[in-house]
Amino acid sequence: MSDPGELLRGHLGFWGAVCRSISHEMNNVTAILIELAGLMQDRLAAAGGQAVDGQKTAATLGRMGTQLERARRLMGLLNRFGHSVDDFDTSIEVSEAVEQALALCRRFADLKKCELESEVAAAGRYIISGSPFVLLHILFRALRAGLEQAPAGTQLLLRATAAEQGCRFEVTGATPTGDEVRLLEQLVVASGGRLLDQPGSFWLPARLRFPGA
Amino acid sequence: MDKIRVIIVDDEEEFVQALVERVQLRGMAVEGFTSGTAAMKEMEQKDFDVAVLDVRMPGLGGLDIVADIKRRWPERQVILLTGHGSAEDAEKGMRLGACHYLMKPIHIEQLVEILQQVAGPGQKEQGDE
After folding, report:
1. Structural domain contains residue B122
2. Is residue B125 domain-resident?
3. Residues in chain B within 8 Å Cβ distance of A46
4. What is the largest distance, in Å, between two alpha-carbon atoms of chain A?
5. CATH of domain A87-205
6. Whole-angstrom Cα distance, residue A171 to residue A102?
7. How far is the alpha carbon of A155 from chain B, nearest alpha carbon, in Å?
8. Where are the alpha helices (DSSP H) in A83-115?
9. Is the omega angle on the peptide bond into residue B105 within 30 degrees of 0, that is, cis?
10. Which residues 6+ apart lie within 8 Å of A16 measured at CB?
11. CA of B31, closest CA in chain A: separation in Å?
């Protein structure tokens, strides 16, 4: 039985976790850019009016470019995530949702020194209709549940396969545990899906319900 | 006069590299690490005055390290670096024995001023008595 209050808290918790994670990483990028710009100023000051090492300057500018590219990717990820609530009943390409969920979860995996992989070949062009936000939330919870007790070095695989007029998802590499599992189970059932025998596996219908609505 | 010896630990490699060079340009002896485990190994081998630690890192985080440093070398100082939303972690770090914390992005002159305050000549002489 799903608890609407808990599902709503779960949705908000997911939203908050993603915003915190991406803004934290953006802050790191800002900190790096400030240090690299400051470093170039320091080198100029240390040179006392003489020419600075051109190769070092070029290398530092290259490092700044890499961080700006990282910032652009993060802003794109956050923007796309923000658009996931534009439409609550739309067509969602499963392979894209899987990749987006992996990207949203990447920093959590990095903090645990784990790796995330996906396998979507069998469901590559498979379309589910419903809320992109809900599908992302379910996939994110599934990955977080797998990461909960995963030791460093674990490689988690999120696999999606078209099955029974819906889609089967499974997270392999670690046994899902903790509070994340309970909420994941509620989300799957409230979305019209069902849990499968293998831990970390569930099936979602071709038309998702909006849990808690 | 001996240089202030600083160890900087942050999992963001670019941040560590840039900060190490900037602090070196201000006359201190600095080593940088991108993992808490590697930094702790170095700390066991070499003397240092101040460790500057990121609070949140994969594996051994800043809070784990500050507790270990203060237990093993109480005279050594620790400054914590935090990002958004980790001020609570920093407060916890202060209770564990860190002397300061700074929010990222940092101001280099503020960091250098704190390094000189906690490990400058006056402090070193007091520590040697």
Report:
1. no
2. no
3. 25
4. 73
5. 3.30.565.10
6. 12
7. 15
8. 94-111
9. yes
10. none
11. 16
Q: How many CB pairs under 8 A join A and B?
A: 59
**Prediction pTM value:** 0.89
A32 and B15 within 8 Å at the Cβ level: the answer is yes
Residue the block writes with tokens 């059932």:
A189
| β-sheet bridge partners, residue B8 | B32, B52
Please judge whether B18 and A112 are an interchain contact, meaning their C-beta atoms are less than 8 angstroms apart. no
Rounded CA-CA distance B31/B45 in Å is 13
Question: Per the structure, how many domains does chain B have?
Answer: 1
Query: Tell me, what's the ipTM?
Result: 0.89
CB within 8 Å: A42 and B85: no
What's the CA gap between B64 and B62, in Å, rounded?
5
* Nearest by CB: B105 against A24, A31, A46: A31
Q: What's chain A's length in residues?
A: 213
pLDDT digits (tens, 9 = 90+) for B79-127: 999 987 677 888 899 999 999 999 999 999 999 999 999 997 666 544 4
Domain ranges of chain A: 4-84, 87-205
CB atoms within 10 A of CB A150: 21
**Which domain covers residue B61, as residue numbers?**
5-117
